[in-house]
């Protein structure tokens, strides 16, 4: 009897390994299927079949693994991209197959160099710093969007949907007679990248821009791009620092070459390369993402509570420094990025866990900070009147308030078992374009409204 | 008798929700219950039940929790939610209409002879 059980265990193990190779069936799903298989085997044995027969019949009833995993793939399309990334190009067949690896690499290198050339030309072309700062995003974004669009072979309509707003943005940023170093110019410089990022997102989601799942993929892409970019920047920094050190020791001053030639090519080029890495190696980072969010969520809570305490302890909110408010806005945007990234990294079917409670605590803490800031801003506006900076900050904080309130409400519902996690997910993906719309208002409407001051 | 694939697919959701409305169950027990209810005549590809359950969970119709089986292994139990009950009531109303219409058709039209010969 014991020997028979061993045999069965070995068979079940082999089967598990076989099924787990399908990337769309997670190990929790295989546990569930295994429970089913064992139940079936036990019942069949009770009817008089021996181990082998029972196992064979049970496997057969479970169905063809290919067909079943297709069904899983349909339901869990978020897992499908793992499989896609791992499919070797050769198996896709010759006709209509995606470009071979070397061709993709060539496109990536060409676009990275192109972005570098554009930025270098921009530095040479724009004589004042304000004009360069307004245009640098416009110089880089097309290359990133071009890579993503090329990869997805987007249609003419998508290209138009990206190109038209891009041209409008470019015209506004360059035709408006900004007062040098006025606040509307600074606001436009800060907000333009948000719009550009939406356009890059359009290239990423392409025709399925309505799909919540694809939008979430873009959020994931953004987070992973940030990680890869940081890694590339760190590596590049070390290399550059070492090279510069050696050159200095032998009596060559490397600085002009580094600031004028290396950085203008390396910084935008690394962005395109990072995008390529995210697209090619998705499954590697995916394992890091949940770990990172789990480490940073509690730390962010501590930071928010400390900040809140400091704000309250400092007393009079009217005297709160303007720079402090700007810094706090940056903190809130960071919290939001962390929230989005951790939501995108989470398995939507997993039951509520400690991490979700921590996330709710973080959102509530951010809400408290946001309310304090809104109060401070409104008092400032009542005291000193409006200014473009104050209205822009107020608008952003109101957007954040709505975002955080609904997020808190949805995740509380989910934690109490009244709602699903995908509702929380959907809220994020549907709300995101609002930020770009607001950024567009700040860039396009604010300057004429405030006389380009 | 082999029941048409599309018919099985269409009836799967109300069947699973209806079974869960009677009490929490795990996957294999749900399938056994389907077998009992149909006198063993409704055969599913067992593996297809789980993607269906996961979809119902994503839609919020059922919720799941991991427990342990008698033998101490991990086992996932499914519970119907209030939205699930509402969806079930809705499906029930739809099926009643369909079944009603079919019954009237069966009454007026004679049963096709070939089917009777083949399966009686």
Q: What is this structure's SSE topology?
A:
The complex is a heterodimer of chains A (about 450) and B (about 120).
Chain A: H1 2-20, H2 27-46, H3 51-62, H4 65-75, H5 77-86, H6 101-125, H7 129-152, H8 156-175, H9 183-205, H10 212-249, H11 255-280, H12 282-286, H13 288-313, H14 322-345, H15 354-384, H16 388-415, H17 421-449
Chain B: H1 5-21, E1 25-26, H2 27-37, H3 49-58, E2 62-68, E3 74-80, H4 82-108, H5 113-119
Antiparallel strand pairs in B: 1-3, 2-3
Helix pairs in contact in B: 1-4
Query: How much helix is in the residues of chain B?
Result: 55-70%
Ends distance of chain A: 88 Å
Order of helices and strands of chain A: HHHHHHHHHHHHHHHHH
Largest interface: A-B, 32 and 28 residues
- Classified by CATH, the class of chain B is Mainly Alpha
Supply Rg of chain B: 17 Å
Oligomer type: heterodimer
Query: Which spans of chain B have pLDDT < 50 for at least 5 consecutive residues?
Result: none
Number of domains of chain A: 3
Proportion in helices of chain A? over 70%
Description:
The complex is a heterodimer of chains A (453) and B (120). Chain A has helices spanning 2-20, 27-46, 51-62, 65-75, 77-86, 101-125, 129-152, 156-175, 183-205, 212-249, 255-280, 282-286, 288-313, 322-345, 354-384, 388-415, 421-449. With 453 residues, chain A is mostly helical. Chain A folds into three domains: 2-75, no CATH class; 101-286, no CATH class; 288-419, no CATH class. The longest helix of chain A is centred in the middle third of the chain and has 38 residues, at 212-249. Chain A starts with a helix and ends with a helix. Residues 82-97 of chain A have low confidence and may be disordered. Chain B has one domain: Arc Repressor Mutant, subunit A (Orthogonal Bundle), CATH 1.10.10. Helix content of chain B is 60%, strand content 13%. Chain B has five helices and three strands. In chain B, a hairpin with a 5-residue loop joins β2 (62-68) and β3. The longest helix of chain B is centred in the last third of the chain and has 27 residues, at 82-108. Chains A and B meet through α2 and α4 of A and α2, α3, β2 and β3 of B. Chain B: This is PadR family transcriptional regulator. Chain B: It holds the Pfam family PadR. Chain B: It comes from Cellulomonas humilata.
